[in-house]
Amino acid sequence: MTEQLTKATGRRPRTWTRLGSLLRLLILTQLAFNIGFFAVLPFLAEHLGTAIGLAGWMVGLVLGLRTFSQQGLFVVGGALADRYGVRPVVLAGCVLRIAGFVWLGYAGESWAVIGAVLLIGFAAALFSPAVESEVARQAVVWEETGGGSRTSVLALFTVAGQAGAFVGPLLGALLLEVDFRTVCLAGAGVFVLVLAGHFRLLPQHIPGRARVRARGGLRSLTRNGRFLALCCAYGAYLLAYNQLYLIVPDEVERATGSQAALAWLFALSSLLVVTAQLPVTRWAGHRLDLRRSMAAGLLLIAVGFAVVAAARPADWKGTAGLLPAAGFVVLLTLGQMLVAPAARAWVPDLADEGRLGLYTGAMSSVSGLIVLVGSSATGSLLDTSLPPAVPWLILATIPVVSVALLPRRR
């Protein structure tokens, strides 16, 4: 049918129309995950600082713990997906995410907030590597059977995630007019729908995916220097992206006196990915290999930090004061478009046979550890009397240094 359509129109159908039902389900899964998640997360730092009354370093630590419990424990979820299959791991993660959002909505003390945040993160550590590794595996199969480049499938996966990240903050901002608890309960409601849908639609056994029974994959992984180098470079990107939840809200508050514009900056980022990710991926696919794509993206992110650092001494307010933050968001997003699909597409080439879930999870675990340390340090920088441009300059150096860590492609 695809060949007949190609002959009739003179061009190949779009990637989405040529994908199988499983890949479509997994891509739509990412959309739903991010709607529920990003309805809550952008407003967490402000809630912790005002309603709960946590200090800046503690807010940074809590956000870092959330990322580490999610990204840092991806290796567990990936290994479980390799051993038991995608379906049970995804369903268990959805149940835990529902419980975590409900708990966060009613948490009134720091210990309860930390517990809820850890549960929310661990839930994603279960379902995300299971979904991501299967998408990567299916993308490789799709490429090997002549469907097209694997990065085009992974770019669609990224677009779906960012579409959810676009809708989520807008939904959260609307519900925040009631209170933060309502936002959390709405996020939990989204995952109730996800749980019901996947209980019905996700196959018990995915053809071609063999469950790994033997142990020993972690030992081989820790000796894979090229893979670990990729993890460190990806961690630098993730640390930069995490600043959307830590240093950017502080900059928006400084410029406008509130965080009302924050949802629009998140919307700008997501809209850019939704509209430009596929063209950027096609452009990069014809000109850059995976290593060069990641290097270009990391350098763009560094320039974004430098833009805000250069503007901070002027201390602009109002709409003019938002321009540097908007410039950072645009450059960060362009860098993300180059880094994220390339990193995901690179992992199958470095993973051991049958261990793609473990390696996919491990990349997020190593980067989650980097974010845990980096977020706490960034939060401490915000509490000091350093010149306002210094934190941004320090953050600009990290992606530049990480370019040198990227392994050479064979």
State the main characteristics:
410 residues; mainly alpha
List the helices and strands and how they pair.
Layout: H1 2-9, H2 15-18, H3 21-38, H4 44-51, H5 56-72, H6 74-84, H7 86-106, H8 110-144, H9 150-175, H10 180-201, H11 217-222, H12 225-242, H13 247-256, H14 262-287, H15 290-311, H16 318-350, H17 356-382, H18 390-403
Helix pairs in contact: 3-8, 3-9, 3-10, 4-5, 5-8, 5-17, 6-7, 6-8, 6-17, 7-8, 7-10, 8-9, 8-16, 8-17, 9-10, 9-14, 9-16, 12-16, 12-17, 12-18, 13-16, 14-16, 15-16, 15-18, 16-17
Helix content: over 70%
Name the poorly predicted regions. 1-12
> Based on DSSP secondary structure assignment, what is the total number of beta strands?
0
Tell me the structural class.
mainly alpha
Count of helices?
A: 18
**What share of the residues does DSSP label as strand, in percent?**
under 5%
Largest sheet: none
Name the shape in a single word: globular
The secondary-structure element order is: HHHHHHHHHHHHHHHHHH
Radius of gyration: 21 Å
Distance between the termini: 36 Å
The mean pLDDT is: 82
Task: State the gist of this model.
This protein is mainly alpha-helical.
Structure write-up:
By secondary structure, this protein is an all-alpha fold. The chain is built from 18 helices and no strands. It has helices at residues 2-9, 15-18, 21-38, 44-51, 56-72, 74-84, 86-106, 110-144, 150-175, 180-201, 217-222, 225-242, 247-256, 262-287, 290-311, 318-350, 356-382, 390-403. The longest helix is centred in the N-terminal third of the chain and has 35 residues, at 110-144. It is globular. Residues 1-12 have low confidence and may be disordered.
